[in-house]
Every structure is written in structure tokens, then in C-alpha cells.
Amino acid sequence: MKNLLFLTSLLAFSLSQAQVTQIPDANFEQKLIDLNIDSDGIINGQVLTSDIAQVSILEIPDANISDLTGIEDFTALENLNISGNPLVGDQDYPSFLDLSIVPSLKNLRMNGKEDNITVDINKLILNNNPNLEEITINYNWAIQFIDLQGSDISLNNLMMVIDSGYPDFPEVCVQVSNPTQAANGQGIYATWSVSENCSFSANCNLSTQNYSLEKISLYPNPSNNYFSIGNLQNSVKTVKLYNLQGKLQKEYKNQETYSIAGLAKGLYMVKIETENASAFKKLMVE
Fold first, then answer.
1. Superfamily grouping for domain 213-285
2. Of 139, 154, 160, 218, which cross-links 130 as Cys (Cβ 3.0–4.6 Å)?
3. Quick one: how far is CA 29 from the chain centroid?
């Protein structure tokens, strides 16, 4: 009996000392349970680090995941599919997604959906990922900036497939160590395959105007008659309203209110342009 009590106590102590990784997003943890990765099988905000340390493929599309906290402990992760999730970054920079914390990553898919706007990430950080082979980002209307600087010197045969799926949307700026060579397909970039809507720069940092535009809002939202633009610090040049197929529905000059009379119910994209920057916001028409 004493031996049994000792073994039971030893097991309980070992379990209490087991290293855990915090997974605050319940939908993320549910997917780990569904994939038989989270061994305790319950949503408790954490997973044994040993459960995820050897996972090399993680397919978690369309799971309503907004927070990827915990992904840093997937130390063997090579293939990640996070398509169709309403992802946000950290509290200070909600539109920035930092995956440099997963240096083992080889293949990333972060697609949106043709008939739905799900991803609001406009900056993707991959500057500590020397094993990257493929980045696929389709129907993602928000992406503007991909930081590969630092990783790029180690990358051979990188394929980047980036297509917003919508006309009249800006180029994606790819930050690299040598933008001239990258643009001309020379040097270490000679074997890269990159979508035509990408440009290269040594410094893609979003301008002060971009940051201020991120703070703007549309109100009322949802709306059935008109909308206005709030928290605007710069003079508006044009406002364009698109449906989810990327077709321009209305175009406006700067004004106090913007009529949406006659539009069908549903979700729309509003592109707000100033002299030096642009931003995209969602508008629900009722």
C-alpha cells in the first residue's frame, strides 16, 4: 500500500511539473483536440508542450481562430495552413502577424475566401524563417507588407503566390536585403517565383499615415442608408465601395456622409484613399 501511494504521489508530482503551453484561444485549442494533438482532450487554455513539440503539419483552416498564441512552441512545425481564420496580432499591433517565432516553417497558407472577408492582417513577419519554401496568400484583401529581411539570404527556390483576388488593390511590399537584385531576379533571388503584384524594398514599414488610417472607423455599421468616417486625421481624396467579388459599386469624393441607398444587403469593402496612403474597412449593409 505504501508503494502504491508513493507511485501515485510521484505520478501526480510529475504531471504537475510537466511543461505546458498557453493556448488562450478556445477555438485554436478545440482544433488541437479535434486533431488528437491536445492529449488531455479538454479546453482549459493550455496544452502539454510535449504534445505539440513534434508536430510538423498543422491544418487549421476555417476554425474561427483569432489568436495564435502558443504557436511558438510548435518547434518542429513545417507546414501551416491558417486560411479563413479572423486572425489578429497582439494588442499593440492587431494587424501584424509575427510568425518569425516559428523558424522551422517551410510552407504557409493564409488564404481568405472569395465570398467572405476574414483576414485583417496587413503585415506578415517572416524574418527569422530560413527554411521557407512556399507562401500562399490568396483572397486576402488586407495584406500590404511581408517582411523577409534576414530570412531571404538563406532561401532558395522560394515561391510566393499572392493574389488579393480583387482589382484596384495595392501591391504587396516585400522587405528584403537587396531589393534591386530581388526585382531583377538576380543573386540569391534568381530562383524565386513571385507574383507580379509584389514589389521589393529594404524598408516597407508602414508610414505614419497608414498607422493613422488604421484607426479610422465607419459608422453606423451595420447601416441601411449611409455611413460616415470617424477618427480621420487626414483629408480624404476618394472613397470606393466594392462587393465581395471585387467589383466597384460606388465611388465618392470627400464628404460628410456616403449614401449606400440601393445596395443589396451584405458585406462590402470600403477603400479610403488620402494623398499618400489608403486603408480598407468592412461595411455591413442591412
1. Macroglobulin (MG2) domain (2.60.40.1930)
2. 154
3. 18
